[in-house]
Amino acid sequence: MAKYRELAEKFIGDIRAGRLAAGDRLLSLRQFARQQGVSLSTAVSCYAELESLGWLEARPKAGFFVAPRRAATQGPEWAPFESRLATPVVPYRHPATLSGPLGTSRLSLEEASRAALERSFRRAMRAAGERLDRYPAPQGEAVLREALAGHFGQCGFAMDADELVIGHGCMDAVKTALEVCTRPGDAVAISSPCYNGLLEVLAQLSLRIVEIPSLDDGIDLAQLEHHLRLGTVQAGLFCTTHMNPQGITMSVAQKRRLAQLANRYRVPVIEDDVYLELAHHPHVPLPAAYHDEGGFVIWCGSLSKTLSPSYRLGWCRPGRYFRPYVQRALGVPTLMQLALADFIDSGAYARHLRRTRDRLARHKPLYLDYLVRHLPEGCRISQPDGGLVLWLQVPGLDGDALGRAAERAGLDIRTGALFTASDRYRDCLRINIGFPFEEPVQRELQALCGLIGKMAGQGAGPA
C-alpha cells in the first residue's frame, strides 16, 4: 500500500475511534510531513486523498480541518408482498466492453496470492505424473476433495471427501443440481431480489419461479412454507450467506429452519454459498447444509469469488441426489485441481482468505463514506457484514433511465430491475466493492453519483 494511503487510513481510524472530531484543526502540510517523517509530496497526497473521501476540508486562509460527517444512511426497505408464480426472463446482458470495477461482483487478486498460486502450479506439474495422460475423474481428484473437506472441517462444517463432486464453478453446480431435481415447467422458490445470473439459468431451463420476500435476517420463511405445503414449488434456490445483491445473511435460526423445511416437505433446496468465506470479520458462518439431516440441501460453492473467476472451479455436496448428479459430471482439468489442492493444503488459501477479509473490512467503509457524502439525501445503502456488493435504494430513481445513461457513459453497474421478474426494485442498483478504493474506483463512483444526482435534480456533491 502506498505510504500516503497508509497515513490516510490511520487518520480515518482516529476519527472513527473518537480521537479526532468534526471541526478539529489539523497540522499544516509541512508540519504533517515533518511529524510523519515523509516528503511534502506524500503529505499533499495524503490530504488530497482524505479530502476526496470527505474526511478533510480545506478552508481558505484558515488551514485544514476534520470535515463534518453526514449522518449514515439506513439500510434498504424490504417491502412485504405476496409471492406468486412467475416466469423469469433472460436478463439484459451488459456489453462486453463494459467491465469496470463497479459492475461484476469480483475481487482483485493481490500479488502475494498470485505468487503462491504460481508456486502451487509448478509443484502440481511436477507431481502430476501419469495423471496427465488420462481424462479427469468425473467426481474430481480425491486430493482436491480431501483438501476441501479438511478446509471446511476446520471451519466447523465437517464432511467426507466422498460427498463432494468437483465441477466448473458454482453456477455450473447450481445448473446441474436444477437439472437433477426439476423438470421444465416446475417452479423454484428464490429470494427477492435474486442474483440475475440465477434468473438467467432458471429461464434457460424453462423453470418458473416464486419470489420470496427478503427480511432483515433472511427471507420470509412463512411464505416459503405456504408454497411448500401447497406443492406450488418443486425446489428452492437460495444464497444464504452475504446474499447477492441484497447483502443479507440468514440468521442461524433461519438457516436451521430452511433445512428443516426442506426435510419436512422432502423438497430439494439448492444452497448457493459462493460468498460464505467472504465475511468482513474473522468469523465464518455455517451454511444451511450444516443443519441438513436428510440430504435435501444441495450445497454449492466455488473459488470464483474468493480467489479468481478465471479458474472456473467449484464443488457440490449433492446429498441424496449424489448418484444422478455425478452421472452428469464430466470432470475438470486435472492440473487445475492438483494445483488448487496444493494451494489449500499449503495454507496459502487460508492466508489469502484472512488477507481478503481484512481488505474488504477496510474497503467497505471507504465506499460507504463516499456514497453517503455524494448521493442525494434519503438514499438507503445496505450494510453487509460480508460479501462483495452494496445494494443502493434511491427514492424516485428511474433505474432503467440510469442504466441507459450509464451505458452511454461507459459506466458498468447493475440496476435493480435485473434482479427480479416483477416490477420491483426500479429505484435500486448494485455495485461491487471487491476492488481497492483507489483512483479507478473513485472515478467511476464520481461518475455514478453525478448521474444519480442529475436524475434526482441535484448536483453530484463534492468531488
Structure description:
The protein has 463 residues and is of the alpha/beta class. Helix content is 39%, strand content 13%. Strands 3, 4, 5, 6, 7, 8, 9, 10 and 11 form a 9-stranded mixed β-sheet that branches. Helix 1 crosses helix 3 (40-52) and helix 2 (29-36) crosses helix 3. Residues 458-463 have low confidence and may be disordered.
Summarize the structure.
Helix content is 39%, strand content 13%. It has 14 helices and 15 strands.
Number of strands: 15
Gross morphology is globular
Taking Cα atoms only, what radius of gyration do you get, to the nearest Å?
A: 24 Å
Percentage of residues in strands: 5-15%
Q: CA-to-CA gap between the ends? A: 23 Å
H/E series, N to C? HHHEEEHHEHEHEEHEHEEEHHHEEHEEH
Percent range of helical residues: 25-40%
Tally of contiguous helical segments: 14
Structural class: alpha/beta
Mean pLDDT: 92
The oligomeric status of these chains comes to: single chain
Low-confidence stretches: 458-463
Largest sheet, strands/sense/barrel? 9 strands, mixed
